[in-house]
Design goal:
single chain; 226 residues; 5-stranded mixed beta sheet; 6 helices; 8 strands
Length: 226
């Protein structure tokens, strides 16, 4: 195993550093990348295709990262290890070099470098699944006008939307903490920790009705007792 290997591809002004290179069953060393993620995200991916189809932009970028590492390392394969942030569970996902996909990435790099060299910018394009959460949206201003978009003037609604955006970080933090806590307490029927009483039970349906498949889930209750 080889750790922390830097890469540099001057032609594309591309640099990177993989977490390690690993040999599987005595074979050639291949790039290894390690990612930690929330329990929900951890359970949502089991293959390279799951990353490419993810609703999260940052998740869809991971395959591109490994494709470039494989090109720079002259490898046909690579491996990603995922770690569940809560319980430490690990998952191995193999990646294979896709020349068509990788070539598309390199073409985009050439376009970016050409714009930088000329001091120009590419034409802005609106992407529904990317632009709304992009931190550069206020700078880029991609065109959004179209037949399906109705422009309205409602100051009160705009104020509510601004306030909603201010509260979003707190809502996201609550959601992430709630998921992590529920993963930790799953299966514990009655515990007390500090000022908190935590109970729970398994809810199960064995599929007595033909149209409903069997299911089972843990229903927790969290109450403050002081």
């Amino acid at each position: 195993m080889e750790q922390q290997r830097p890469f540099n591809w001057p032609k594309f002004q591309l640099t990177g550093s993989i977490d390690a290179k690993i040999s599987i069953n005595g074979s050639k060393l291949i790039p290894l990348e390690i990612k930690s993620m929330s329990p929900f995200t951890f359970s949502s991916v089991s293959s390279e295709d799951d990353f490419l189809k993810s609703k999260y932009t940052y998740m869809r970028k991971y395959p591109a990262q490994l494709q470039l590492y494989m090109l720079m390392d002259n490898s046909e394969e690579s491996l990603m290890i995922l770690k569940n942030k809560v319980n430490g569970a690990l998952k191995e996902i193999p990646f294979h070099l896709n020349y068509e996909y990788a070539e598309g990435i390199l073409k985009r790099l050439e376009e970016v470098n050409a714009h930088v060299a000329r001091g120009t910018e590419p034409e802005a394009v609106w992407l529904d699944d990317t632009c709304p959460d992009c931190p550069f949206l206020h700078i880029c201003h991609p065109p959004r006008e179209g037949k399906e978009i109705q422009m309205i003037d409602d100051p009160n609604l705009e104020i509510k939307l601004d306030r909603r955006e201010e509260l979003k970080p707190l809502a996201d933090e609550y959601k992430n903490l709630d998921e992590e806590i529920k993963e930790i307490i799953k299966g514990r029927e009655k515990i007390v920790i500090g000022n908190w009483l935590i109970t729970g039970k398994w809810i199960e349906n064995k599929g007595g009705i033909k149209e409903i498949k069997p299911y089972k889930y843990w229903l927790p209750s969290i109450k403050k007792i002081a």
